[in-house]
Amino acid sequence: MKGVTAEDVHHFLLHTEDGRHRRVARMVEEVQKILLEVTSDISNRDSRFHCISNAGIHSDSLKDQPDLLAQWIALQRGRRPLHPCIQVLSPSQFLVTVPLRGLSGFGQKRSRRWRYYSPSGTQLVAPAMEPEKLHQWLEIEQFQKSAPHWHDNDVNIKGDLVPARVIHVLLEHLYRAITFCSLTDKVNVLESFGPSIRLNVETSEQMVEVELVPVLEVPGFWPRKAQWPRFFKRWPPRERIQCVKSFGFDLLARSNYHWQLSFLRGERLLLETMDEDGGCRMKCYRAVRQMKEDVWCPGSHPVISSHHLQMIVLWASERNPSPKAWKDLGRCFLRVVKRLQKCARQRFLRHYFVRRANLLKYADTAQLDALADKLSQFLRGPSLSSSLYQGASSAC
């Protein structure tokens, strides 16, 4: 079987990546500008919600941790600018987080109690389901400081901070803010099934579907569910591990009862620094991402997102820790493609930090099977030259 050479991958990226980067960067800037105006108005209406400009290194939760803030700023010096509130899942799908404020001093709670209520507060005859692997309950008692409004019934039931209620409050403010900011021609709230907020945002390039998610940032704390690093692993280096853990994690409001753990800061740090040993991991990731978007899994709602690909590259880096394993770009590209094919075929992809969580648990199985078939066909005769001229004719 003829393989893919390093020159093939370089040539492919040279002719495809720059156009994608410029197009996505324009969309990100336009979406950020619109949602900056919207969330500023929401923040003025309700002090529990921050403007998206107060995410990441600008977060209130970092103001009392100057050493961590200085470390974060130093790591980003000289690197491409990041939008800490915006995650590009695909060119047509963004996840945008809205920081919450008024809660600080988070601590893990060991005690367990059963919840017998619905998100609306109605008494249930059976207990509410336990959290899945990537989720957890959140109680007001877990914070050393909490603003009075977080004790109100619109977000709090019997001491629990209920994500479905937080989402509902944000949605009500969102409708008012869109009208107040005269953005009804640019932003359209989509009908959602379940606790989520989805918008269509018009940009100069195309329409972008945005999921707007309330987020509680918890820097400087590492959750027990994330059993990382694993024993006897040589990647990443020890000092990088300590830095990742110091950045902590986030809690996203994306379900009825339970808050979803997110490690976006740590993931970005690992991805941004993984090739300091001279490897080609990020070039592999960008090439696979481009092939996924153009050929293997095109369409506005791909079953595999950029975040899934990042998880695959992180796992591949841990299981191939030697810098020598990432010198041959062609072979490394095929290695990542094979891992993607295996995940799609088995319908299973572990989260890098919470390995018991399957990120493809609720993915469309028909789309995963179609993707696995396309990847199998590609691996039988891998070539990137024809991909430069192949259009995105069908969804995966």
From TrEMBL:
Which stretches make up the Mab-21-like HhH/H2TH-like domain?
280-376
Which Pfam family, just one, is annotated for this protein? Mab-21_C
Q: Which family does it belong to?
A: Belongs to the mab-21 family.
> What's this protein's name?
Mab-21 like 3
Q: Which InterPro entries match?
A: Mab-21-like_nuc_Trfase, Mab-21_HhH/H2TH-like, MAB21L/cGLR
Domain (Mab-21-like nucleotidyltransferase): residue spans on this chain = 86-272
Organism equals Xenopus tropicalis (Western clawed frog)
